[in-house]
Amino acid sequence: MTRTSRRLRARNRLLATAAVAVVALSGCGDSPVRSGAAATIGDTRIPISDLSGYVSRGLADPQAQQQLGADRASYERQSLARMINHVVLTEAARRKGVAVSSGAIDAKFAEFEQQAGGRQQLEQQAAQNGIAKQDLERFVSDVVLNDALADKLTADVEVPQEQLEQLFSQQAAQNDTVHTAHILVPAQKQAEGILGQVKADPTQFAALAAKFSTDTSNKDKGGDLGFAGRGQFVKAFEDAVFGAKPPTYLVVKTEFGFHVVHVIERKTTTLAQATPNLRRAALQKERETRTTELLAEVSKDLGVKVNPRFGRWDPTQGSVEEITDNGVTSPAPGGDEVSVEEQPQG
Fold this sequence. Notes:
Layout: H1 5-18, E1 33-34, E2 37-41, E3 44-47, H2 48-58, H3 62-67, H4 72-95, H5 102-116, H6 119-128, H7 133-153, H8 161-170, H9 172-175, E4 176-185, H10 188-200, H11 205-212, E5 224-229, H12 235-243, E6 248-254, E7 257-268, H13 271-282, H14 284-302, E8 304-306, E9 312-314, E10 319-321, E11 337-338
Helix pairs in contact: 2-4, 4-7, 4-14, 5-6, 5-7, 7-14, 8-13
């Protein structure tokens, strides 16, 4: 039994949303960019070689190459914008006294892993979206830092308790999840025989899954189904695993056959535990507004200058845009500086 394609699409949407979590910045400058620099932000210089490495890594995955590599220049601009945004976000957080711990970053990694179905799946989804494994940690760190900064900026905003409770109720499936693995076989007698073996020696579960399970989507992963909330499985399976006390083994009959199930762990989130994320959901618009305003201010203070070889900085979108007019000086081979005087001034 596999989880629905709708859930997989939701995971991909989450990752795609996370990919733009470092919100739009603004600001630009009128000083030249030194030769060899893709962009400068204040005293911080992004070498062309760093951008090139980032882009090459991001396009290493075949799916990313097919989807993003078809317009490499566009992906290059997106990558440069992400690198610029990282610098401005870091400075904005420093000015507000906001820092994140390694534990917070690890927790966000774990959250993304759970939603993706594991670390390997998360890395694969990130790679397919142009974020290489080597760059994933900094990317997740920026997501966490952006959230922490927005938390600080909206700490004074009240959210009614009734609204928090309503949101908590709407997210019931996320607040009660169970981690399971299974071995799917066609006959009850076979399932009961396997159940006896795994009860006698639990370390054999993965090997037995690989040997006997007819669920090819996870048999080579020890039959692991990851964490899932209510509504993700057929009713008979759901009732059995949510009714069991982990850790335990049992046999469940469904329309797919007989499942030898290992109920590994159950996670239940209380309203108090969920409140920080519920506040973020309730204040999403205000968080975006306040964070964007601060980042715009910091970006303008620092100054953002982009080598016109790659485009021009758009202060309203926090993006590097293609230069389509003829009034911008192109980088001269071997020159010491590249003029950006035709870029919009911040």
